[in-house]
């Protein structure tokens, strides 16, 4: 044997010795008659890639120096395992494993100790220790899990039996239940203390055998059962970017006495170990016992906080796990952190408010500058408008105003009609007007004159003042009042009854033409809708004066409004109130000329409104059918 030992030492002196105490299965204990399994831990990815690199294993008995080989009914060598199917005291010793690859050699020693059991005892000499908790259900774990897993890898079935002392425990009797590799004991009491032996029986290499392991069990009153992670509970939490975030890990531990549990937060597979607020992601230093609970289950509530001082992009879409570590189990709960959904109501409300504001501003601008916008569009895009010259009309507008000796006649109104209107609309703007008192034919009947000329006009200007529609005539010939007064019996008292008749515009009954013009205009405007009547208000009208107007005029004024000349005059008179008295006549005359020039400017507000109501001078040709109808 010494020769073999020297030979092995020389031959394998270059093999790497792997410390047996660093690996599992370093020391194996058994009793005579049992099955003992030696397992080499050299086949490990820690040493080499055994799934791709070829290797072979040899077992040697260091006591004899001989290589171990299969012996029917007694020894079975299977790669990294050696099975002693009926171990004896003589098998006690050290066994070496030699593993060779094309480039390396490894060696490891495993110690097998075979001991006689104590006299009069059924338990094994070497025992594991497990404690049980009084008053609750407990489970004892069979210490032979390595044997069971290896047999399962060979596809060999095995069975487990349990003994308390020397007495066999039957499955399902009393408080005992077999659960795979566990023995469940209900409502444990102090009488359940003692030794429990787990025996695994199987057939290997044609030999039926068994292996047993004994557990020393103590029942204690203080206990800590499997903890329960109540929060987080597999949830999704949303938090805004940049905010401070805190999440509670809440654990309930059914226990009597201080629970033996550690609570940790884990993210990306790593423990969050920092407890410093200076670190952006940290936890409270240790779990805190919030309270004790006596019913319905005795236990303690534990808490540990996860704190993120400022959320950043890298914190989202991760699972944050709270894990409770204990000897009874390691339950966990997690939550997924997501950014908050964008508040769609804010942009929607902002958009709606902006649209509403733009709409209001647009309406205000359109209302304030409607006339300017329309005039600009007409001037810039005349091609969109039909040429009116082919509609069969002779005049752009018919101008009606109080004639001489008629109610409401005024020199200022006559001056406006005969001079101011033509000066701007005809000379400056190119419109063609029919003006009563200027364009009437001699000897033409009033009815024919009014009907034909209104029919030949595209618009009608109805000029009026406060006294136009009243029944009283003024006494001063120089004012805006009339020289004639209507008596209560309907007769006319005139200071000048011998007025000369120049043409049909100056008739014996001047009110007749005025009345006829108004009636014809209102009929076409309000009933037929064939004529657009433009009310031109030459002086400011008070509410009491407006009440005396004919109902048709009041209705038209309310519906479409009036173009007010007096507003234009008022603006041009404002600056004159600051002129001191006693200035020379030339300066006053110059100011009057400036005022007149301003009032006759086509770009003034009054004349823009007048042009706005006038027909559009377009360039687009009218359809032949429409032109033919207009010429009828």
UniProtKB/TrEMBL annotation:
The keyword Disulfide bond applies. Residues 117-216, 227-324 form the Ig-like domain. SUPFAM superfamilies: Immunoglobulin, Toll/Interleukin receptor TIR domain. Keywords: Disulfide bond, Glycoprotein, Hydrolase, Immunoglobulin domain, Membrane, NAD, Repeat, Signal, Transmembrane, Transmembrane helix. SMART domains: IG, TIR. InterPro entries: Ig-like_dom, Ig-like_dom_sf, Ig-like_fold, Ig_sub, IL-1_rcpt_fam, IL-1_rcpt_I/II-typ, TIR_dom, Toll_tir_struct_dom_sf. This is Interleukin-1 receptor type 1-like.
């Amino acid at each position: 044997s010494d020769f073999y030992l020297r030979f092995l030492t020389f031959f394998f002196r270059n093999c790497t010795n792997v410390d047996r105490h660093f690996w599992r299965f370093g020391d194996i204990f058994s009793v005579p008659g049992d099955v003992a399994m030696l397992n080499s831990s050299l086949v490990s990815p820690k040493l080499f890639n055994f799934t791709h690199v070829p290797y072979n294993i040899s077992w040697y008995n260091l006591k004899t120096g001989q290589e171990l080989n299969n012996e029917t009914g007694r020894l079975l060598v299977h790669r990294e395992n050696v099975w002693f199917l009926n171990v004896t005291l003589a098998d006690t010793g050290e066994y070496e494993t030699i593993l060779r690859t094309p480039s390396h050699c490894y060696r490891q020693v495993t110690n097998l100790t075979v001991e006689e059991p104590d006299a009069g005892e059924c338990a094994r000499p070497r025992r594991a220790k497990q404690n049980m908790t009084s008053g609750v259900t407990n489970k004892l774990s069979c210490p032979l899990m390595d044997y069971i897993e290896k047999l399962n890898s060979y596809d060999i079935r095995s069975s487990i039996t349990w003994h308390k002392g020397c007495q066999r425990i039957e499955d399902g009797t009393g408080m005992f239940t077999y659960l795979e590799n566990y023995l469940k004991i209900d409502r444990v009491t102090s009488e359940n203390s003692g030794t429990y032996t787990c025996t695994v029986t199987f057939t290997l290499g044609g030999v039926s055998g068994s292996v047993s392991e004994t557990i020393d069990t103590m029942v204690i009153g203080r206990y800590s059962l499997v903890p329960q992670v109540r929060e987080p509970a597999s949830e999704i939490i949303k938090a805004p970017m940049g905010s401070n975030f805190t999440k509670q890990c809440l654990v309930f531990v059914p226990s009597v006495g201080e629970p033996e549990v550690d609570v940790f937060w884990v993210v990306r597979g790593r423990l969050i170990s920092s407890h410093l607020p200076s670190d952006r992601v940290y936890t409270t230093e240790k779990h805190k016992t919030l309270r004790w609970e006596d019913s319905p289950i005795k236990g303690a509530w534990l808490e540990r906080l996860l704190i993120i001082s400022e959320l950043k992009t890298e914190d989202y879409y991760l699972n944050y796990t709270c894990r409770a570590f204990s000897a009874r189990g390691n339950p966990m709960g997690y939550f997924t952190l997501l950014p908050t959904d964008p508040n769609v109501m804010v942009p929607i409300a902002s958009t709606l408010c902006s649209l509403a504001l733009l709409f209001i501003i647009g309406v205000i601008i359109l209302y304030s500058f409607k006339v300017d916008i329309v005039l600009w569009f007409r001037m810039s895009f005349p091609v969109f408008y039909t040429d009116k010259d082919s509609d069969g009309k002779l005049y752009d507008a018919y101008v009606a105003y109080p004639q001489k000796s008629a109610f409401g006649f005024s020199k200022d109104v006559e001056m406006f009609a005969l001079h101011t209107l033509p000066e701007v609309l005809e000379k400056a703007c190119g419109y063609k007007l029919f003006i009563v008192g200027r364009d009437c034919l001699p000897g033409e009947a009033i009815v024919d004159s009014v009907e034909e000329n209104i029919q030949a006009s595209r618009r009608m200007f109805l000029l009026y003042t406060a006294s136009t529609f009243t029944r009283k005539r003024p006494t001063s010939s120089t004012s805006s009042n009339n020289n004639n007064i209507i008596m209560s019996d309907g007769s006319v008292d005139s200071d000048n009854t011998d007025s000369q008749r120049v043409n049909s515009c100056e008739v014996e009954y001047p009110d007749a033409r005025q009345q006829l013009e108004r009636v014809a205009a209102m009929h076409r405007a309000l009933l037929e809708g064939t004529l657009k009547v433009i009310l031109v208000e030459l002086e400011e009208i008070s509410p009491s004066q407006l009440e005396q107007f004919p109902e048709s005029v009041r209705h038209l004024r309310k519906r479409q409004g009036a173009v007010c000349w007096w507003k234009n005059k008022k603006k041009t008179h404002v600056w004159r109130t600051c002129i001191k008295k006693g200035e020379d006549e030339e300066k006053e005359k110059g100011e009057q000329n400036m005022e007149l020039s301003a009032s006759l400017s086509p770009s003034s507000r009054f004349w823009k409104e007048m042009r706005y109501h006038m027909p559009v001078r377009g360039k687009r040709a009218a359809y032949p059918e429409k032109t033919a109808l207009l010429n009828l």
